[in-house]
Amino acid sequence: MSVESTVRPVTTARLAEMKREGEKISMITSYDYSMAKIVDAAGIDIILVGDSAANVMAGYETTLPITLDMMIYHGRAVTRAVNRSFVVVDMPFGTYQGNPQVALASAIRVMKETEADAVKMEGGEEILDSIRLILSAGIPVMGHLGLTPQSIHKFGTYGVRAKGDAEAEKLVRDAHLLADAGCFAIVLEKIPADLATRVSREVEVPVIGIGAGNGTDGQVLVVHDMLGMNKGFSPKFLRRYADLHTIMTEAVQHYIADVKSGDFPNDQEHY
Ligand code: KIV
Question: Which of 30, 35, 48 should be mutated for ligand 1, with most atoms under 8 A from CB?
Fold first, then answer.
């Protein structure tokens, strides 16, 4: 089903309404025009231009190397494709931690140069001053707690977060701080399902989970993972909806064989 003819753009108000009405929110990443065009027309509620672009588009081991210029390039390509979805762009590592004025300048660049609807930032109390300043400029902020990949060198692993009481209580406190400050939504990544359900019930804003069970207000996946383009990544929480790795490999092998055999192009495939 295409939704292009019945466009009702998704807004922060609509996302809040979806939570109130118990309608689950669908969110997926995209980093380029062609993919964003497909997922927007398919009816996705939120497109995240994630800094996972560092991994799936640029081939880096972690999300740390991606720059603000690179995120703006990806964000701009995505917003050009979108009719209905709400577009969130990740603030990359080093552009908001520590200095609220730097954070505000980074967020303003993202909003001006990509025409996205919002930014996403990893962390709780530690970055609250930056979040408050960005919100005061009228820029919607999505929070991100639990496994925050920009802190991988602090955690040491990409394992499940907040399994112990102290970290779980800090996460709950941070979620309340983000919601009370005015974040319009919060992503919870790779935490126990019971904890994610508790946070989703306690805070008024929509909570979107990834590897956080079914009790959140919505779900997010990296598009390359859910389409099966990335064979080597198989965490427990990932459901693959296609096997594009096999489909694409076979298509390219078929093309190679046709070129080698002289079968392509045929009489109808030239001018
Ligand atoms: O960058 C990203 O793709 C993300 C999602 C995993 C939530 O932050």
Answer: 48
Q: Which residue has the tokens 């390219």?
A: 252
Cα 259 to middle of ligand 1, angstroms: 39
CB within 8 A of 33, min separation 6: which ones? Answer: 77, 78, 80, 81
Which residue's alpha carbon is at the smallest distance from atom 1 of ligand 1? 50
pLDDT tens-digit series, residues 138-192: 999 999 999 999 999 999 999 999 999 999 999 999 999 999 999 999 999 999 9
Closest C-alpha to 142, from 41, 50, 243, 253: 50
Residue 50 alpha carbon to ligand 1 centre in Å = 5
Give the CA dihedral 55, 58, 64, 66, nearest 10 degrees. -140
* Neighbour tally for 156: CB within 10 Å: 8
Which residue do the tokens 């005061």 mark? Answer: 136
Which tokens sit at 121? 């930032």
d(CA 101, CA 35): 33
pLDDT digits (tens, 9 = 90+) for 45-101: 999 999 999 999 999 999 999 999 999 999 999 999 999 999 999 999 999 998 999
Q: What is the dihedral of CA 204, 210, 215, 216, to 10 degrees?
A: 20
pTM of the full predicted structure? 0.96
